[in-house]
Amino acid sequence: MRKVGYMSVFFVAIFWLFVNGTPDKGPEICPPAQSPASSCCKDTALQIELSRLSDKLGISLDTTCDISLMKTLASWLGTPYRHAGNSYKGIDCSGFVSKIYKDVYGIKLTHSSRSMITEMKERVKKNELQTGDILFFKIHGRRISHVGIYLKDGYFIHASISSGIMVDRLSAPYYSRHYYTAGRVIG
Fold first, then answer.
1. How many domains does the chain divide into?
2. What is the C-alpha separation between 101 and 110, in angstroms, rounded?
């Protein structure tokens, strides 16, 4: 009779584990994209994608980033510069910013770096920049003549006349010298 009692308890325990799984040990936390993939992550595909984008853009990304924006930006890297261009065959700086905002956020911006500043909802101080903020530069004299999109950690992406779509450091002497202001379209 004792054997039957132990067997019943054993089968009930097995059934409970089958239905409920193992006891919860709290939420699983995925490591940042730069650390090796961990078996704790339920969505390793996201971690792989973040790691790939981090490598391509040259910046550290994590699960808090705007992945849609980062994927779109990365897809444009290496596209050649073409004045008044608006495609992967060639694009200029304001065309690039306009295209990204239209494709990612559905926001239509003008294809003119000088006019684009009037479309900003707010101006942003350099030390308060956030991913997606639009950067304005006065390269040719006293007028705005170049724009880019702030990534993070002091990096931005833009259409360079010599290298096409690329990532640069905002603190590089050339860009630091010509930086004018930044604006935010989305809040």
1. 1
2. 10
